[in-house]
């Protein structure tokens, strides 16, 4: 797959094909080279190219240039591969171990790596010549040792990131040995950057090797690019062309490796992030294609046809009434969102979603994982990932068109607040809670620092924080997850917005704190008359605080109903199935028994 995508990249294709030809040129030397590379014939001395039987002529010692070039290519590639192998074995192994196990091992490995890195590589190789003698293979193996710290550092840093991933913890809990976790999970995460780095290291290795040979520090009995370059250089006034061939091969090989390295980086990066943001022209083309294939995306019929998949939708109440009532605060109509795939197509993940949220109302957006709840909420807030393409639809807030970036910036944070899912990762660890809240509030409200502090401390008390002053001056790591969520709720309501969008606000919290946070949202909503769009996959949360519910499935709304009717008499079979599966085993307060 990666190879396929590499070959689809024009630079990757050119680089790979040229590199393959160079490798074949070297590999075929033993049976395709027309002559013995060291056989000298007097009549061939400085013979020009195309001399009969000698395509590239002879050098100053009467040896066949083509045969020497072929053997030199094999020698160079072999020595560089040895260098790469040594660097990979030492650097990657030590980086994996240091990053994964940490502690004393990491300290020692880092110390050794830093010391090796501080050595002047080229000078050391020249000095070592007197000890190891004229062996290019040994010199390059030593160079491999010198370059290993670059792999060590890269891999260690990557492993430090991966080590904290939940799937690594899960593998540990599942009883996998450290060796299996490293080879199965950690190595997978680091291999792409290592492959990319290897192409650059190989390119540098070839240049260094040629440099050493040019200085006369290679094996004089074996043909080499650098050695051939030196010979030809000494003889440049007699046979100028002989400089060209090794120089061409050195340049072409290093250039191809850099091209392949760059292309690989693009390919692997794209694979990692699924797809990069599209060029505006490509977006326009995809929008046009989408319209053609889906008919008018404004039409209910089109929405239904996209979303159908055994679910009867709009007729059952998923669609918004056509008569837009005046107390509608937020209206999402026929929203279609897609993501570019790696083969430049578009995968739609939201298929014509329509919602209406009245002033002071709590609307739950519920559905299984991946049904498009967050994408819908993000499109209202204008925080969809960069790659996302909004293919159609309208989002209006109090009559204002939120597709207009200027309008969106004016209302976001001021009239629309946002409570995110992960409280801790949404607070910057380098600033105090108070600094972050004040910064947000003062960006939308023209008040002094002191006034902001007063208002926010009062608000922190209101959201149930016991010691608001201390919390105001605390750093995020000094407060608990539940407190952090309260802080974010305070931040969202501080500017007294008309609408709060809460994306799974209780998922990251433990059960008792969840109930408190839900009660807080409901209390604040009633106190301030705000509307709330609550994204959740939990019917318990819906039962607790929602007035109405929209159920989503596979990017489409399948049913919108008031909470009580949805629980007692869901219109759609899918809603019933979802209710059964989600209520099974979970404690849900019946909507009619919740505290107001
Ligand atoms: N950056 C992205 N690139 C490609 N596809 C994406 C991206 N972000 C989301 N999607 C896809 O969009 C679909 C809807 O995702 P969304 O996050 O809205 O689901 P959700 O209903 O909120 O699920 P969850 O409850 O698990 O968060 C999913 O299929 C997801 O794979």
TrEMBL record:
Major localization listed first in the record, in broad terms: membrane
Keyword set, alphabetical order: ATP-binding, Cell membrane, Membrane, Nucleotide-binding, Transmembrane, Transmembrane helix, Transport
SMART domains xref list: AAA
UniProt xrefs under Pfam families: ABC_tran, BPD_transp_1, OppC_N
Ranges of residues in domain ABC transmembrane type-1: 73-261
Transmembrane segments: 12-33, 77-101, 108-131, 137-155, 243-264
Membrane topology: Multi-pass membrane protein; Peripheral membrane protein
Subcellular location as annotated: Cell membrane; Membrane
Highest taxon, organism lineage: Bacteria
Domain ABC transporter span(s) in chain numbering: 330-579
Stated family: Belongs to the binding-protein-dependent transport system permease family. Belongs to the ABC transporter superfamily.
Identification of the protein by name: ABC transporter
Organism: Streptomyces graminofaciens
């Amino acid at each position: 797959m990666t190879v396929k995508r590499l070959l689809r990249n024009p630079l990757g294709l050119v680089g790979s094909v040229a590199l393959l030809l160079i490798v074949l040129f070297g590999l075929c030397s033993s049976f395709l080279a027309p002559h013995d590379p060291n056989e000298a014939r007097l009549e061939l001395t400085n013979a020009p190219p195309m001399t009969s039987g000698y395509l590239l002529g002879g050098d100053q010692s009467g040896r066949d240039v083509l045969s020497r070039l072929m053997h030199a290519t094999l020698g160079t590639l072999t020595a560089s591969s040895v260098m790469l192998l040594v660097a990979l074995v030492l650097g990657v192994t030590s980086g994996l171990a240091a990053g994964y196990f940490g502690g004393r091992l990491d300290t020692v490995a880092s110390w050794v790596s830093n010391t090796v890195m501080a050595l002047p590589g080229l000078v050391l190789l020249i000095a070592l010549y007197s000890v190891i003698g004229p062996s290019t293979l040994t010199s390059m193996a030593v160079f491999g040792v010198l370059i290993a710290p670059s792999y060590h550092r890269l891999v260690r840093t990557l492993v430090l990131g991966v080590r904290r991933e939940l799937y690594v913890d899960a593998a540990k809990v599942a009883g996998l040995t450290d060796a299996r976790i490293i080879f199965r999970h950690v190595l997978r995460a680091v291999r792409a950057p290592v492959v990319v780095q290897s192409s650059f290291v190989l390119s540098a290795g070839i240049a260094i090797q040629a440099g050493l040979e040019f200085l006369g520090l290679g094996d004089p009995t074996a043909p080499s690019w650098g050695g051939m370059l030196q010979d030809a250089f000494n003889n440049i006034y007699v046979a100028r062309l002989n400089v060209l061939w090794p120089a061409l091969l050195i340049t072409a090989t290093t250039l191809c490796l850099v091209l392949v390295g760059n292309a690989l980086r693009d390919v692997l990066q794209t694979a990692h992030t699924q797809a990069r943001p599209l060029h505006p022209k490509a977006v326009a083309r995809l929008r046009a294609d989408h319209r053609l294939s889906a008919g008018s995306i404004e039409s209910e019929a089109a929405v239904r046809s996209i979303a159908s998949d055994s679910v009867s939708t709009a007729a059952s109440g998923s669609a918004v009434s056509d008569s837009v009532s005046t107390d509608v605060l937020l209206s999402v109509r026929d929203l279609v969102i897609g993501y570019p795939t790696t083969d430049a197509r578009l995968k739609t993940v939201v298929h014509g979603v329509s919602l209406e949220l009245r002033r002071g109302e709590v609307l739950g957006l519920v559905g299984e994982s991946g049904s498009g709840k967050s994408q819908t909420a993000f499109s209202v807030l204008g925080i969809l990932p960069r790659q996302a393409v909004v293919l159609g639809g309208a989002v209006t807030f109090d009559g204002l068109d939120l597709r207009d970036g200027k309008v969106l910036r004016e209302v976001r944070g001021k009239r629309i607040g946002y409570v995110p899912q992960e409280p801790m990762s949404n607070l910057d660890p380098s600033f105090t809670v108070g600094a972050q809240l004040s910064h947000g509030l003062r960006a939308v409200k023209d008040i002094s620092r002191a006034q902001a502090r007063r208002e926010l401390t009062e608000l922190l008390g209101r959201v149930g924080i016991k010691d608001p002053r201390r919390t105001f001056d605390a750093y995020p790591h000094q407060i608990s997850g539940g407190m952090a969520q309260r802080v974010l709720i305070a931040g969202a309501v501080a500017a007294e917005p008309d609408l709060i969008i809460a994306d799974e606000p209780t998922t990251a919290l433990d059960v008792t704190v969840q109930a408190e946070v839900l009660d807080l949202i409901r209390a604040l909503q009633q106190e301030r008359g705000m509307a709330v769009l609550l994204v959740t996959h939990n019917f318990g949360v819906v039962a607790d605080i929602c007035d109405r519910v929209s159920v989503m499935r596979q990017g489409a709304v399948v049913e919108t109903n008031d909470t009580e009717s949805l629980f007692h008499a869901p219109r759609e079979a899918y809603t019933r199935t979802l209710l059964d599966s989600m209520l099974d085993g979970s404690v849900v307060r019946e909507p009619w028994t919740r505290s107001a």
